[in-house]
Amino acid sequence: MNLYRYDLKTKQVRELTHYKEYDVKWPSLGTGSEASIVYENGGYLYAFDLKTEKSTLAPISVESDLTLTRPTYVRAERFINSFSLSPSGARALFGARGEIFTVPAKKGDVRNLTNSSGVRELWPAWSPDGKWISYFSDQTGEYELYIRPQDGAGEEKRITTDGAAYRYEPKWSPDSKKILFGEKP
């Protein structure tokens, strides 16, 4: 089943959609000058524009009644699992709730360096020259080593690519050119 148009004057029938796998279900005509037909096909809702005769996927967001699954703000300081100090002592680095934060010792702003929903970053470490932050992230599905500028400017850089083992606690060499980390298969 598809959408069809029937012309009352010419008595002509014209097919508007051309689905082969699933039927068009529950078409409903809107009102007003920008009216469209909303219908379901294959588990998705579409809006068929009557002027252009084009269908577009309708984005749907349904909030859950399960309050624990709703987005919420949580104070991260209760969930700190690792820390590091900047070489100058002016800022501290914290890993909390899967994010990496830098916090000023006295005045300044708290920076969320990773800000990555659905991804967990662990084991942040400050380079001895104070320019870089290293950490592990599971954004690829495996924990890989990344570095990024300490001020949050610029993009992160992925260092490892073979995440076959659990990695932990990166340590920088004194010249800030190498990183050592533990690995457990």
Please tell me the total number of domains.
2
Shape: elongated
In the CATH scheme, the class of the largest domain would be Mainly Beta
Which CATH architecture of the largest domain would you pick?
Answer: 6 Propeller
SSE pattern: EEEEEEEEEEEEEEEE
User: End-to-end distance, in Å?
Assistant: 54 Å
Share of helix among residues? under 10%
- Name the quaternary structure: single chain
How would you classify the helix and strand content by structural class? mainly beta
Taking all residues together, what is the mean pLDDT?
89
What this model shows, in words?
The protein has 185 residues and is mainly beta. The chain has 2 domains: 4-57; 76-175, 6 Propeller (Neuraminidase), CATH 2.120.10. Helix content is 0%, strand content 43%. The protein is built from no helices and 16 strands. It has strands at residues 4-6, 13-15, 25-29, 36-41, 44-49, 54-57, 80-85, 91-96, 99-104, 111-112, 121-126, 132-137, 144-149, 157-158, 166-172, 179-184. Strands 3-4-5-6 form a 4-stranded antiparallel beta sheet, with no helix packed on it. It has a 4-stranded antiparallel beta sheet with strand order 7-8-9-10, with no helix packed on it. The model has no long low-confidence stretch (mean pLDDT 89).
Would you spell out the secondary-structure blueprint of this structure?
Blueprint: E1 4-6, E2 13-15, E3 25-29, E4 36-41, E5 44-49, E6 54-57, E7 80-85, E8 91-96, E9 99-104, E10 111-112, E11 121-126, E12 132-137, E13 144-149, E14 157-158, E15 166-172, E16 179-184
Antiparallel strand pairs: 1-2, 3-4, 4-5, 5-6, 7-8, 8-9, 9-10, 11-12, 12-13, 13-14, 15-16
